[in-house]
Amino acid sequence: MIPMTLNEIARAVGASMHDVHDPEAPVTAPPAADSREVVPGGLFAATAGARADGHDHAAGAVAGGAVAVLASRPVGVPALVVEDVRLALGRLAGHLLARIRPTVIGLTGSVGKTTTKDLLAQVLERHAATVATDRSFNNELGLPLTVLRADAATRYLVLEMGAGRKGDLTYLTGIAPPRVGLVLNVGTAHVARMGTGPADVAEAKGELVEALPPDGFALLNADDPYVAGMAGRTRARILLYGRSPRAQVRAEAVRMDDRARTAFELVTPSGRAPVRLGLIGEHQVGNALAAAAAATALGLGAAEIAEGLNAARRRSAGRLEIVERPDGVTVVDDAYNASPESVRAGLRAVKALAGPRRTVAVLGAMGQQGDASRARHTEVGRLVADLRFDVLITVGAGDALAMAEAARSSDRGVAVHAAEDVAGALGLATALVGPGDVVFVKASSEVGLGACARALAGA
After folding, report:
1. CA-CA distance, 254 to 272, in Å (whole number)?
2. Mind listing the pLDDT tens digit for each residue in 100-118?
3. Is 114 annotated as a binding residue?
4. Domain that holds residue 383
5. How many CB atoms lie within 10 A of CB 108?
6. The last residue of a domain, from among 51, 83, 115
7. Known binder of ligand: residue 60?
8. Which of 18, 19, 79, 403 has its C-alpha lying 20 to 30 A from 224's C-alpha?
């Protein structure tokens, strides 16, 4: 973040000052919404959540080095008081961008956003100062916090943009107008909030390309008809990527090694180069091509892009995170979140990784699936059986039991166990997993299976 005085910040966000002794005190570090993450010289953004109210931690944040608190009411320590803290953060982010003017790359999609963001950041930062979304800070709070980490040296700002409902991307692109917009795919994540099917999801995701300027780039997945169909919704130049022969940025000669890592020939308008990814799963080809398309739009050549992709590693926890235990058990933690598309990709990646080894899937419910939820969970249960997992442990009632029933009714020989909760799943997995097994753990974040994966990995 570039240094700003409290006075400048107050003017930018329309705040009134309370208990501020020095309006010209400089804020030299980015804001944080978690008082435990405040650094000296920063600003603490006090927001009220479902489980905690940041205002209750204002004094502790200032004691920990915050210059002041951005708050919705006086808190007894130096504070900039606004009506809505989230809106104020957005205004502050826009104020900063107007001063430093980096190239903003926005990316969205139903699955793969975080991995693609991590890959693209690792390609770009080899060539210029790059700031990218931390973890999955992709909403109306996380995006401005990411923007406010940028400074005068930042050339590229890679912003993951999430959309839980229609209008979200319009709001986020209003804070940080992108010059490059990347749409990965249209799936069923959040379909219950957006409408009834993929066309409604596509309408929401397409808000990103509608925000692009005529001299910008809309990077569209040629392999997804809903995404490719967004070409008519943008004034920007179109660059197609994917495995389709019509894509300008594409993969040829795709293959997988015995560790489930993919290699391919990257083809771009500037030439060709070999890519060998360090991430598991054939679905990572699409994520890598998306990152390559963005880098191509920004002027990088095929060889430079391939070098960055080849050196890239997983950065975000809970996304096909592999832990090898001393007893030979491999735990694959993919429990950050789940949708039908990501569960299918994860199951296939783990089977490819396991080879002849025994496989155990620990699966919880996938949220936000609407009226089709039970059917989609049933399909996952069938896939577990069709892929010939040895053991399936489901967690919870309702849709999770639909997975169990579907796998149990198959003739594939999968041993099915149903746990009531995460503790029960951990107990079953601990008892059933043996040396050399490969364990896959995945569910929507609200299930809390990440704790199970971490416990298994540390066993």
Report:
1. 14
2. 999 999 999 999 999 999 9
3. yes
4. 321-457
5. 28
6. 83
7. no
8. 403
